[in-house]
Amino acid sequence: MPLPSAAASASGAAVTDPVRVMIVDDAVVVRGLIGRWIDEDPALAVVASHRNGRLAVGDVMRSNPDVVVLDVEMPEMDGLTALPLLLKQKPGLVVVVASTLTRRNAEISLKCLSLGAADYVPKPESNASVTTSPEFKAEIVQKVKTLGLRARQRAGRAVRLPEAAPAPGTRPTTAMAHAPQPQRTPFARPAAQPGRISATARPDGGKPGITTRAYSNVAPRVLLIGSSTGGPQALTKLFGEIGPAIGNLPVLVTQHMPATFTAILAEHLTKASGRRAAEGVHGEPLMPGRIYVAPGGKHMVIGKDGHDTVVQLNDLPPVNFCKPAVDPLFQSAVPLFGAAILSVVLTGMGHDGAAGAGVIAKAGGSVIAQDEESSVVWGMPGAVAQAGAASEILPLDQIGSKIIRILSGGRP
Prior knowledge:
Rossmann fold; protein-glutamate methylesterase activity; chemotaxis; 2 domains; EC 3.1.1.61; alpha/beta; EC 3.5.1.44; 5-stranded parallel sheet; Protein-glutamate methylesterase/protein-glutamine glutaminase
């Protein structure tokens, strides 16, 4: 579903104030291109453009942007140095970090996320490639718009606009920067399933019509987690809490990220959890206490090799415009684990994971969805909740304790 026009709200009210955008990049060509792309969208407006972080920090209060697109490598003051200064001057500012796909820049980008950046966009390696990359253009515009509107909504300066997946026919985003042209996914968005109104879950502020299912009465034998925008921060927090509790089952994570980024994410999860985390390797057996991260540019699923349950990687087309995608992982686990699946869908744009969560729920497994208030974007977990596939809808700071309780044999 494409993003709705910023000219109209869900209730029909007009939105007259476009999202204000500052662009910070040392390359004049890049600043010009991104500025043109932003100004082509009536929901967005460029209010400032600077060649380094020092100029951006000096101007942020005057230009008053809602969103800053921040380059990592710049003279005088780089993005990592400028980020905390920008956020200190303007709390609530949305910062989208842009960096090329090198290991160093991936590490810096993830560091920026830990310091308060909302998201990142991988840049093509050369300025010439920027001009010919529809993926980069689509991702910049989509993330600036979605995150900017979300920030304005939270600040009470804009009406509620629903989060959405990329429009059909658009190019894939973040995790698919190097993937082939997306094709129609066989994993359809699930219809709402029969359920119960939850007495203990938080159906995101009591939204009408959201129901939850009973948790499985079978002890989990695998933990599956899917996430996208805001996911690295959420995953780091979550694994810092559940690390001591996951020694008896394997954990598989699909985070929408490009190659290089996923390897570094795994290193961060190792530090956060105290458990070994690494990109999944095709054919390796699932081991309890291990964390397997889907590598960027590949789908990670679960299969059988003789008597062993193993990681399998494939190069099939993007699913839900994502590669890796959450739905293939979730769906592949059902024939092998059924009601013994515990799954979590964290913050993210679009609806990836909703179809897979529906299959898990139908098989009797458990699905936890992050709530709207604690999500950077309530797209993926919101789709799960609205489909009636969740056993519970919880803020991020309650998900870890819930997982620990379930894994320790307590009643959900």
